[in-house]
Write a structure and sequence with these properties.
352 residues; alpha/beta; Rossmann fold; six-stranded mixed sheet; four-stranded antiparallel sheet; nucleotide-binding; P-loop_NTPase; ATP hydrolysis activity; ABC transporter domain-containing protein; ATP binding
């Protein structure tokens, strides 16, 4: 539109100039000038289209240059001298030793001097307000970016010295947004074809999806659309849980896995974790406090720092407890329910 207006003004200026110069130029020369001016319209449009196309095409090399400047991840394979034992990790003992973490080299530090011991087979909840550093702690565990300080020791092995394949394949995670690929159900649960059908059916039964899959025409070969859009959010999360059951790693991480599911699915997930992962170390980034109040310990983060780490009931007994503040913010009725859960769990431990 702007180009058309410019050409209109250009031709108008030539016409008006021709009137004032009629005494100097003859009619043939003026007609020739107008003919060339009109022909320039197509040339202007061609050059504008060409420049726009070149500008659009330059986005591709610009992105290639930007990707080329990204920091490269650590080595995928572990050096021979740092190779962990074949059965590593066998206990699931985790030590955070003065961990500092930033999502990028020039980004702000989101974790500061996090130090704690997570005993093998323990269930630890990670809570805190938005931006406290809960998910960042999980990112540091998986080395999505390299820690800027400190170390993470898993069963006596420094995780920073391992290749990313050796580290990540030995820790199961169920993220907040379930990841499913376009393809058969069997491929989604066992992409490397390590397990037989009976193992897969057992895992589906444990997460209460066996009847759902049996009701499909092709069973395990039924197709999941990209992103799992032909299943509900809760069912997608349960498929991810079944995948973790198959892997049977000694460490399980749940990154707000129940934040987007209904209470029934939340209950199924919590029940499976208590029964099927009783021999595993479980780290749960909690959106709902009731999912972690019966855990062995709760880690409270605030502004990237570890402010509390102990048994839920013992933390709630402290007058100035950060956990107590979070519990009280849920309302008096729910707060009492959460405190009762923590107290009951404490008494059961004392009896055992």
């Amino acid at each position: 539109m702007r180009l058309d207006c410019f050409i209109f003004l250009f031709i108008t200026a030539i016409v008006l100039s021709s009137i004032t110069l009629a005494q100097i130029f003859n009619a043939a020369l003026i007609s020739l000038s107008l003919t060339y001016a009109i022909a320039l319209m197509d040339d202007f449009a061609f050059y504008m289209r060409s420049s726009t196309e070149v500008e659009n095409l330059m986005v591709s090399p610009e992105r290639v240059i930007a990707y080329g400047g990204l920091e490269v991840e650590a080595s995928l394979e572990t050096l021979p001298e740092s190779k962990p034992p074949p059965n590593w990790p066998d206990k699931g003992n985790i030590i955070f030793n003065e961990i500092c973490y930033s999502h990028s080299v020039d980004g702000p530090q989101v974790l500061s001097n996090i130090s704690c011991l997570i005993s093998s087979r323990s269930k630890v909840g990670i809570v805190g307000r938005t931006g406290a550093g809960k998910t960042s702690l999980i990112s540091a565990l998986f080395r999505l970016a390299e820690p800027t300080g400190g170390s993470i020791i898993i069963d006596g092995v420094n995780a920073n010295a391992l290749g990313l394949h050796d580290l990540r394949k030995n820790i199961s995670i169920i993220p907040q947004d379930p990841v499913l690929f376009g393809g058969p159900i069997r491929y989604n649960l066992d992409p490397f074809q390590v397990y037989n059908d009976s193992d897969i059916w057992r895992a589906l039964e444990q997460v209460q999806l066996k009847s759902v899959v049996e009701g499909l025409d092709d069973g395990l070969l039924s197709i999941i659309t990209e992103g799992g859009s032909n299943f509900s959010v809760g069912q997608r999360q349960l498929f991810c849980l079944a995948r973790a059951l198959l892997r049977n790693n000694p460490i399980l991480v749940l990154d707000e896995a129940t934040a987007n599911v209904d209470m029934k699915t939340d209950g199924i997930i919590q029940e499976v974790i208590r029964e099927q992962f009783s021999e595993c170390t479980v780290l749960t980034v909690a959106h709902r406090l009731n999912t972690v109040m019966d855990y062995d310990k709760i880690m409270v983060l605030d502004k990237g720092e570890l402010v509390e780490y102990d048994e839920p009931h013992l933390l709630l007994c402290q007058s100035s407890s950060y956990l107590g503040q979070l519990v009280d913010q849920t309302g008096p009725i729910n707060a009492k329910k959460l405190r009762d859960i923590a107290l009951l769990n404490h008494r059961q431990k004392c009896v055992n």
